[in-house]
Each structure stands twice: as C-alpha cells, then as structure tokens.
Amino acid sequence: MSASPAIAGDAALTWTLATQNTDGSAIAASGPTSLAATRVEWGTCSGSDFGTATGQQIVATPATTYTITGLAAGVWCFRAYSRTVAGLESAPTNAVSKTILQAPPNPPGNLTVAALVVYQFIGTDDAVALLPVGTVPAGTACDPAQSVNGRYAVPRAAVTWYGNVKPRVVFAQCAA
Q1: Per DSSP, what are the bridge partners of residue 170?
Q2: Tens of pLDDT along 149-168?
Q3: 39 with 56: CB under 8 angstroms?
Q4: Taking the C-alpha atoms of 17, 20, 23 and 26 in order, what is their torsion angle to the nearest 10 degrees?
Q5: Taking a C-beta distance cutoff of 8 angstroms, is the pair 5, 73 a contact?
Q6: Distance between CA 63 and CA 134 in Å, rounded?
Q7: d(CA 89, CA 100)
Q8: Where are the beta strands (DSSP E) in 69-163?
Q9: Is 162 left (phi over 0), alpha (psi -120 to 50) or beta?
Q10: Cα gap 155→166, rounded to integer Å
Q11: How far apart are CA 131 and CA 56, in angstroms?
C-alpha cells in the first residue's frame, strides 16, 4: 500500500491485490475463498506502526485505489486487509503514513492600492530591490493571488509610467 500526494486534506491510496494465501497457495479465481474486497483503514500512527483506527472503507475488488478526503492536519497511518467472498480477512498490510499539512490561509480579498507608486522587483545574488516605475490611481484593484514582500500585482493598464521601462508585472502597497 502507498499514500500519494493529493489535495491538502486528502490521501490517495493504491495497493496491489493479493495473489497468494499465507500458506503460498494461489487465491481462487471464484468461489468463497476468492477476493471480494479490500478493507482500507486509517488512523493515528504509533512511531512507524499503525496506532488507533479512526475510519475505514470497503473497496470492492478489482479496484486498487481509494482517496480519503477531509483529513485534518497531522500524520496519518493507513493499512489494508484483503477480504474473501466468505468474509474472511487477511492480516493487515504494513502501515504507510502521510503528513497532511495545514492549508495556507486564503489571500485577503477586496484589496485596493493604498500607496500610489508601483514597483518592479529586481533580484540580485543576495537581495531584492524595488525599482519605482510609475503610479496608479487610488482605489485601483490589486490581485491578492500575486504578491511579493507584502505588495500585490496591479493591472498594467492603470499605470502612468515614469519612462520607457514597462515591466510585465508591477506591484503596489495595497490594503483591504
């Protein structure tokens, strides 16, 4: 079993279906001893071992994937059991873990220009410099999804340029 990266709060699990019983004999293709499902279990971790189960899902064979959604930030452990048509279960797989990170906060909304000067950011080997390139009218909308060092992107069409330098992206001090 493995836990792959997915959307924050989700764990995409994959596994390989069992092909042998614990005694080494082949699992029957049909009948009461054939595979019917995989029971996926998740919960806390105790070191590298599975801790306490907090949820489970039965996934019908032949599926070999399942995504658990809505997991809180923290370290989660996962394991799986093969289940026969007769309802007998195997021992669990080895536990795998995944760390769910805290989701970043949403960017502020309704941002408008608070300081009229707009800047181009210039990067050097060891510093970032602000080069003033123009002005924008007060109240110009800022893009909360594009920010650098506390300044937000503003539309180029709103800029009154100081000269011939017209960078593709310019930033201004903005506030809600």
Answers
A1: 154
A2: 889 999 999 999 998 989 99
A3: yes
A4: 150
A5: no
A6: 59
A7: 29
A8: 74-84, 96-100, 112-123, 128-135, 143-148, 151-154, 160-161
A9: alpha
A10: 12
A11: 56
Write the single-letter amino acid at 112: T
Distance of CA 41 to the CA centre of its chain: 20
Average of per-residue pLDDT values in the chain: 89
Q: Which residue has the tokens 């064979």?
A: 61
The 10s digit of each residue's pLDDT in 21-32 is: 878 888 899 999
* Neighbouring-strand partners of residue 174: 113
Question: Is the full-model pTM beyond 0.70?
Answer: no
Answer whether 92's CB lies under 8 Å from 36's CB. Answer: no
pLDDT at 25: 86
Q: Identify the pLDDT of residue 5.
A: 53
> What is the Cα–Cα distance from 69 to 90, expressed in whole angstroms?
25
Residue pLDDT, tens place only, 78-108: 999 999 999 899 999 999 999 998 877 666 7
Beginning with the edge strand found earlier in the chain, give each strand of the sheet holding 170-175 in spatial order: 143-148, 151-154, 170-175, 112-123, 128-135, 160-161
The answer to whether 35 and 83 have CB atoms below 8 angstroms apart is: yes
DSSP 3-state of 99? strand
Residues facing 132 on adjacent strands: 119
